[in-house]
C-alpha cells in the first residue's frame, strides 16, 4: 500500500527523486522521508508540491504526508547503502529503522499542535468556541498546521480540504465534546468556519440541543452557500462507519 502512494507522488513530482511513506496505526495521517531532485530544496516547497500531487492523484486526506524529513539529494536510497533491493525495491524495514527517530519526531511535532492547541500549539482562531480548533484539526488530518490560524476561520470547511466524511467526523466530535448536534448541511455550506462558530455559540447560549441550518447564523442567509454540494460519498461513509465500529471493539 505505501508503495502505491510513493509511486503516485513520485510520478507527479519532478522535484522529488524518492520518497518513503511511513504511517502508524495509532495515527490518522502519514509522514515521509523525501530525497529531493536537487540539493538545497526547501521543506515547505517540497510539501507544497506533494500536496498538489496528492490532489492530482485523488489521494484521501489521510494518505497525504503531513510532514516531511528531507534527506540530502546526494544521499538517495540505493542498493549500496542497503535501502534498496537488487531489483530496485525499497527495503522498508531498513528504511524505517534508519529514519525512525526523524519520523517519530515529525509525529511528535504535529501532535503538539493537534492534541492540545492550548499547550504548545497554535492559539485557537475561534474566540467564542475555542474547542472548535481541536475538533477541526482532528477532523482534517491533512490540515496544514503551519497555516496562520487566523486565516482558517475565514475559510469554508471545503476550502480547508474537508469532504463529506471529514464533515461527519467533525459533527460527531461537536456532539461528543459540546453536546450539540450540528447540521451536516450547515458545515458543508457555510461560507466560512467563523459562520459555523457563531452558529454553534448561538445554539449553546440559547440552550438548544442542535445547530440547524436555518438558525443561529451570524449575518443572515448570505453566510450560507445554498448551491454548495452537500451529498455524502456512500462508499467513503461506509468505510468511516466501519472504522468507528472497529475503534469501538
TrEMBL record:
Pfam families: PP-binding. It comes from the Eukaryota. InterPro entries: ACP-like_sf, AMP-bd_C_sf, PP-bd_ACP. Residues 145-193 form the Carrier domain. This is Carrier domain-containing protein.
